[in-house]
Amino acid sequence: MVGTDMEWYESGPKRITEVGISVLPVLQGPLSKPIHALNNMEVHHIRLKNTAHMINGEKCPGHPEEFEFGSTCFVDLQEAKQAFTEAFIQHDAYGNPRPIILCGHAIDNDLDILRKNFEIDLEAWDVIVLVLDTQAMAKELGMNPSHLMSLKSILEQYCVEEKYLHNAGNDIAQTMVAASLLAGEVTTGRGRYSPVNQIDVDNLKAMMRNRNTFSWGTPLFCTNCDSTEHLVGQCPKTYICTRCAYRASWKHMAHTHPVGKCVRPPFPCKDCIESTNKSRQRDAMTHYIEDCHLEKCKSHPFSSSQSPC
């Protein structure tokens, strides 16, 4: 049983920032609770190196550094494809591809992103034998039948709270939790609203915290300087983003990243573009014309041809 979830930067899935992949081996033997089936699960939280510096904050707060079910790794695009391949293409003792149950929340969105962003068509791989979509499962159980429920709302039905949703690793882990609880309600007839479920999830987190191993990527990656020796919080380098420095509302962020990793759009200064000064032309895309420090110097009461400006 394999699950996947993806996070992207702000407004659309063109810039994927995180990938969550869960892998649950074949079940053997009876279980006292459906959620106990997840004790053998592995969850991988993957951040894409080229977009890891993009952290959501406007529409929906992101929590890329708050993975609760193991360790985070940083990968490039090819390594991300390798991670998907290893998860979905597994072989039995005779070398045959093992059948896969695919699990997700609003899974059609993730399948579409896999095709467009990673050039992976799971249907073409012909290993999926069953799809479990927790959004559809909740609707079939009569949970708010007139609306498609969020993962958070489904978990709340079972007294499970996840503080750091919109972290791809946490999301797919909790999607697997939701699937087990939804399936358990059908197979065992157990009701909802049991506080014991939260205890089970907390125990699951503790059990999985040091379980993950990676054959790809690196556990350390600085989203500022691209070093694989430390994380951004330990980066010794100082940066000044000229794009942020020129705007009053962004000035406080200017020292947190280089201009090459600024997520804010460039602003063309018409005067600098048309200038014969090469340094002005080079900086033209970092600010608006009204914020051009050279334009302000023209109106300075002490400006002259000898002015430092």
UniProtKB/TrEMBL annotation:
A GO molecular function held by the record: nucleic acid binding
InterPro entries of this UniProt entry? Answer: Gfd2/YDR514C-like, Gfd2/YDR514C-like_C, RNaseH-like_sf, RNaseH_sf
Q: GO CC terms for this protein?
A: nucleus
Q: What is this protein called?
A: Qde-2-interacting protein
PANTHER family assigned to the protein according to its UniProt record, in alphabetical order: GOOD FOR FULL DBP5 ACTIVITY PROTEIN 2
Q: Which domain of life is it from?
A: Eukaryota
| Name of one Pfam family that matches | DEDDh_C
**Residues of the Gfd2/YDR514C-like C-terminal domain:** 2-179
